[in-house]
């Protein structure tokens, strides 16, 4: 499971893998909940869950409760790339609760820890 964290002040984003033995601490949390950053090695930080994705790439929607998959009629937001006025379609989306099928958790930093923010964001690796 990946934990993607972003800083709204600097606009930087980074990710870290959550160890298998720590994944059970976030299962059952929903979008909007605040989790402890020590889950991903960010001691003292608080992270608010803003989105989820499963192995198939289905995004989560806050109005779908639980961990189920659904095909609601949607016109904007997660699951729709380029909305046109009046255009609505059915898309496969996930519920707003973290389950064992979740592979990515998107979060935003709400409280900062003792480490400065510059140290927790790793530089991008160059592709050769």
Give an overview in words.
By secondary structure, the chain is mainly β. It has one domain (2-115). It has one helix and nine strands. A hairpin with a 6-residue loop joins strand 1 and strand 2.
In short:
Helices cover 3% and strands 31% of the residues.
Low-confidence stretches are none
- What's the arrangement of strands in the largest beta sheet? 2-1-9-4-3
What is the molecular shape? globular
Nearest-integer average pLDDT: 87
Query: Could you tell me the radius of gyration in angstroms?
Result: 16 Å
- Tell me the total number of β-strands: 9
Helix content: under 10%
Structural class: mainly beta
Instruction: Give the helix tally.
Output: 1
- The string of secondary-structure elements, in order, is EEEEEEEEEH
Largest sheet: 5 strands, mixed
- Distance from N terminus to C terminus (CA atoms, Å) equals 26 Å
């Amino acid at each position: 499971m990946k934990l993607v964290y972003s800083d709204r002040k600097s606009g930087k984003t980074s990710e870290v893998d959550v160890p298998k033995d720590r994944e059970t601490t976030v299962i059952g949390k929903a979008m909007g909940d605040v989790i402890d950053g020590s889950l991903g090695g960010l001691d003292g930080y608080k992270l608010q869950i803003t989105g989820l994705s499963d192995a198939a790439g289905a995004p989560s929607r806050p109005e779908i409760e639980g961990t189920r998959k659904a095909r609601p009629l949607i016109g904007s937001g997660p699951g729709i790339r380029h909305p046109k006025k009046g255009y609505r379609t059915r898309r496969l989306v996930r519920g707003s609760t973290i389950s064992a099928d979740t592979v990515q958790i998107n979060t935003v930093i709400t409280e900062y820890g003792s480490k400065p923010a510059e140290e927790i964001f790793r530089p991008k690796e160059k592709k050769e």
